[in-house]
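Model it.
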Amino acid sequence: MMFKLRSLPVSVCLSFSLLCFAPSALAQLPINDAAAALLQEGDTLLSQRKAGEALRSYEAAAKADPTSSVPLSKLANAIYFLSILQTDAEKKSQWRAQSEALAQQALKLAPRDPIAQEVLRMLSEEKPAPLHEPTAQAANLKHEGEQLFVAGRLDQAREKYLQAAQADPLYSTAWIYAGDCYFAQKKWAEAEQLFRKGVTIEPLNSQGWRFLSDALGAQGKRAAAEEALLNGIAAQPSQMPNWGKLAHLRAAAGTPLKPLGLVRKSSVTLDPATGKPTVKLDSTFSGGPGEQKTADAGAWLMLGMREASIRAKNRADNVTGSPFAIELASWEGAMKAASEIEAKGGEALTDPGLIAMQTLAKADQLEAGLLILLYKESYRPEFEAWKKEHPNGIRKFVDTWGLQP
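Modeled.
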């Protein structure tokens, strides 16, 4: 795994720092001293926009501690952002596949690795959360703060972040990163104050809620820490680190969460010229689309056929259906058909994820389940409307069903 690219634009380096330079995110993941030193070296190189050298340091860290997930997750993160810069479609696809494989490897070593979880979320998303775009001055000041943070000059880093916040008061991330400097110094109350400032300015900053939860937890405020995580989920349900931390808190309280564990096994494409839909099933179903042998395969086929029908009709009617409306209608049709077949003495579903979706459908909770457990940023309009109709809906859903993505 060798990359010749030695530098990155400032904007991409700033994106790297979202995961690389947040000490609260990695504090509980084990790693030996040799590997930790190599990671620190890689982070420093990355802050200097020397991407190729940084990758080699991360690779060396992975060899120095094969049992730690952190080098693999940082590699996955770095390669993901390199793929964004790649203009060649084939290479972009290869790098994204490599990033996903590394993230999955990391999660095998540490299922709650927040960087690996975030990489998989980013790979699955078609667009980012609608956060405030900072002014150039604020972004540059924040970048200067990151360089100071990496150098361990936390007080000076915090001042730079606060200058960035003053330059652009709506830039919530600057307040949150200033709070992270206090967090690194174990000044929990001071960190809490700045994290709260950030999420008050921009409640959709999911990372800010997660950092606030860390600061509250460090002060023994368990209930408030959990509430902050639920607010982080309300900001963007696809940010897996929030779910991982919530699951940890719930498990400690004796009310563990169960992962949905749903892996989609059907896909739909429309011919660009004719609009003719094609439904493809996962290769694990040996019979293929025309020769189904299990209830699970049948359910996936029904889901795909329902989606294909809706999309084809929308095209014929020259209608642009919302992604969530299409997804909800597809699941409603598939789960209704599966339940009817089972009621008539047919084979029951066996996939735990499908069974969970069927249970939600029977309780008229498919809308909530899709928005919370299978969220995509394209669902944002429906999600915001749902939250207004159900002010305490996310907590109620989690309490009732005990599920997480």
